[in-house]
Amino acid sequence: MTSTGPMQGKGVCSMSRKDWKLVISVLGSLSGKHKDVLAAMVGLGVLAGARPFIAVILTGMLVDAVYGGRELGELLRYVAVGVGVTFVIQILEGIMTMFFNRKLEYMQEIQAGPLNEKSMEMDYEYLENAEVQEMRQRVERLGGWSLTAQMLSTLNKITRNLTAVAVAVVVAVPMLFRGSHSLSRGFAGSWLMAVLFLAAVMLLILLEFKLGRYFNRKVAESRQQMSGYENRKKYYLEILSEPEKQKDLRICRQQGLYEKEFADVARGIRSTAGKVAKHVCCSISVEQTISAFTGFLVYAFAGLLACGGMISIGGVVTYAASVLKFTESMGSLVYQLSWLGGNVARARDYTDYMALPQRKHAGTIPVEKRRDDRFTVEFDHVSFRYPGTETYVIRDLSLKFEIGEKMAIVGRNGSGKSTFIKLLCRLYDVTEGCIRVNGIDIRKYNYGEYSDLFAVVFQDFQVFAFPLGENVAAGFAVEEERAKDALERAGMGERCRRLEAGLSACIGKEFAEEGVTFSGGEKQKIAIARAIYKNAPFVIMDEPTAALDPESECEVYAGFDRMVGRKTAIYISHRLASCRFCQDILVFDQGKVVQRGRHEELEEQDGLYRELWNAQAQYYA
Ligand code: ADP
User: Fold this and answer.
1) Which of 192, 323, 538, 551 has a CA that sits 20 to 30 A from residue 500's CA?
2) What count of other Cβ atoms lies within 10 Å of the Cβ of residue 396?
3) What is the strand order of the sheet 568-572 is part of?
4) How far is the CA of 385 from the centre of ligand 1 (A)?
């Protein structure tokens, strides 16, 4: 994994050129074709940054006009212009805000697109990697904000503050020079005083920057901790809305355990949220104290200028308000830049997540299309341990099998049967050794084409809250007759004929009131129909009849030959009796094949098979 992690490397709040490039490229890629949102954010920032100065300038002009004894008509003209311009700007701001808000939620969806695609395409093992899942969680939503929304909002604030700083400089600086501004009556004071004043203001801004950066780093660190808790919370909340999980939870009386775990997460969130609140509070207090001090300094300086006759009374108002706006905007700018530092960490998470290597894309060789479906599979000294674990669950396994055979895999729980299937289907890559199909290392094949070789019914198969037809056709177009035939062959024909909506019936009631709740056995038959529909050369059934009643089990086994035809079928089953019809039975023990042969041969031998057979036989005696 290439992750540098958000808190690793440089401090989160220092933005290098590389960081800026990263933010801009991520913002560009996330907003995609919706550059109008970016433009609206910048436009909104410019208008919001400039608007307060209309009042600042006009107030100064009005004060001077009153002191200068101008006519009421002229005063009213000033007011009318000020109100008119402010009104137009606010209308524009309102339109842009409306446009932006409408798109903000949508931006979340835009961001979700590539993220979801990545999650579905990434190497399977990353789905079990907590660090990767937390990374996704951080990118997806943190504190209720999507990365895109937070970046856009920060960009808006930066533009607003930059504009305010620029306008403040344009308004205030010329006032210090004689005749260069309509409000000034000249600058005759000492340069030293001006320089001292400027230095003091800059020092305060720097102090605010340093302290702001410190507190923001603390906030970012706490939020980082929060993502781990939020990941767990998401998992626990999902349990609450899943009847299947609730069933076990209730019957096994695990509510207490659930509450304990949830309370643990809640405690974690509360404590990290407390830290966030503390640091945000410190940051605000520091900002307000420094602002108050700066305000005092600015008014004192403006007062001095006015006493010395260097600026008018109205000038004091305009000058002080502009300088204060300048310092306030500089402070906010610094704060926003350090916020952006936090977003850089999330942007890095995003790019790291999107760049997670996809080993399966390394293979390019097309899979040979064989009309006779004859493929040879060879495990050559294969050993495997799950990522992040030390124990080998498959040990130096070597075996070969021809397609067209019916093969059964039997063995105790945990002996590596399902793992063997996962390796064959390339959900995981071998740790040592090599698996070959038709003499070629399976890692060299184009992954998509290789996956097409297998139709698998996993032990923990899943059907989804989609229409029945789509569940059966899965990745392929729904062909009505073919889907009905597959359901018929899986033993679901009669049940489906009773469905009013036929293949359009939605599975489950999650999204449709009229959805159909199927039993566990029926769902398993749907999963079997899905495997039949795929019409792949290999049919793999991991405990294919676990959820079926004895009648359905007989039906399914009797129909297996018809179902799989000349294809290669691999069955994993605990019920040895159901495997008797296979020509080739592999007996797994601790990650190795300890026996292999036909039922009659294995039954004769002194070994694990006979042991397991006898253990089961006594229940049937
Ligand atoms: P079987 O199908 O024979 O019951 P499995 O192949 O499912 O056995 O499991 C073999 C061993 O691998 C077991 O000890 C199990 O705990 C371990 N195992 C299975 N899946 C994982 C996983 N995702 N991560 C770590 N260990 C696993």
Assistant:
1) 551
2) 14
3) 454-457, 538-542, 568-572, 406-411, 584-589, 592-597
4) 9
Q: Which residues line ligand 1 (CB under 6 A)?
A: 128, 386, 389, 393, 411, 413-419
**502 alpha carbon – ligand 1 mean position (Å):** 38
Q: Tell me which of 127, 410, 413, 419 to substitute to probe ligand 1's pocket, judged by most ligand atoms within 8 Å of the beta carbon.
A: 419
Q: Which residue's alpha carbon is at the smallest distance from atom 23 of ligand 1?
A: 386
- Reading phi first (left if > 0) and then psi (alpha if -120 to 50, else beta), residue 601 is in alpha
Q: b/e per residue, 242-266, with b = 16+ CB within 10 A?
A: eeeeeeebeeeebeeeeeeebeebe
What value, to the nearest 5°, has the Cα angle with vertex 225 and ends 343 and 6?
35
416 CA to middle of ligand 1, Å? 6
User: Sheet harboring 376-384: ordered strands across?
Assistant: 394-402, 376-384, 432-437, 440-441
Query: For the residues of 486-509, what is the DSSP string, one character each?
Result: HHHHTT-HHHHHT-TTGGGPBBSS
| Per-residue pLDDT tens over the stretch 594-620 | 999 988 888 888 889 988 888 876 655
Beta strand spans in 403-515 (E):
406-411, 432-437, 440-441, 454-457
Instruction: Compute, in angstroms, the gap from residue 447 CA to the centroid of ligand 1.
Output: 23
Spatial contact of 540 and 421, defined as CB atoms under 8 Å apart: yes
Percent of the chain past pLDDT 70, that is, above it, reads 86
Q: How far is residue 240's CA from residue 246's CA, in Å, rounded to a whole number?
A: 7
From the CA of 389, give the closest atom in ligand 1: 25
Pocket test for ligand 1, best of 123, 386, 427, 587 (most atoms within 8 A of CB): 386
Q: CB of 521 within 8 A of CB of 548?
A: yes
Give pTM, 2 decimals: 0.67
Residues 501-551: pLDDT tens digits? 888 888 887 777 788 888 888 888 898 889 888 888 888 888 766 666 666
**Looking at ligand 1, which residue's alpha carbon is closest to its atom 16?**
414
pLDDT value of residue 394 = 95
Measured from the Cα of 591, ligand 1's closest atom is 10
Burial class (CB in 10 A: 0-12, 13-18, 19+), 208: buried
**The ligand 1 atom nearest the CA atom of 459:** 2
Q: What is the pLDDT of residues 310-329, one digit of tens each?
A: 778 888 888 888 988 988 88
Q: Is residue 16 scored above 50 in pLDDT?
A: yes
309 torsion bin: left (phi>0), alpha (psi -120 to 50), beta (else): left
Q: How far apart are CA 216 and CA 234, in angstroms?
A: 26
